[in-house]
Design goal:
about 15% helix; nine-stranded mixed sheet; alpha+beta; 11 strands
Amino acid sequence: MSDAYDPPTNPPVILHRDDHLLIADKPAGLLSVPGKGAHLADCLLSRLEAACPGVLLVHRLDRDTSGVMVFAMSRLAQRHLGLQFERRHTAKTYVARVAGHPDAEAGYIDLPLGADWPNRPRQMVDFEHGRAAQTAWRVLAREENATRVELTPRTGRSHQLRVHMAEIGHPILGDPIYAGCASQAAPRLMLHAACLMVRNPDGGAPTTFEARCPF
């Protein structure tokens, strides 16, 4: 991640809003929540608060990841949605472009992850102290030197998709932390939260929200 913070200035894209939920399409390069220091105060949450007073945080996406995020419009909805994420009652699907060509058309990664403390915010595979982390993947399209894949995390660890794909030899293009020379192969991190299913706090009906992949 670059030290410079120069987020896009476009107003937030709201995909859906009702009395309980607000669904937004976060652009790459914008923090989900404020960082440490006044120069990192601008974020999706603060922009949404200005447009929709009372909106509350439920989960986060990495700064350089784009796509669907759900926010709550009441404390009750926030608790309801937070429990859904905690109990894995949500379903998330990402699209990524990765370096090279996987041998198979689909696979499943089961590698525990933990913080690489001397190199924060970097995460690493840690069989001794790491927390369980699983990711399913499948090929969507093969390009000349890259592959477009669909990623479905079964857990929600920090940097999970980025570490898992790098560990199997196909880092996500544009990743400044895990991709090595492939970090220069794209103008941004090629990772997008394309689809999110949550249960509406009003009645519990499952609802799916989508944001078009920008790459």
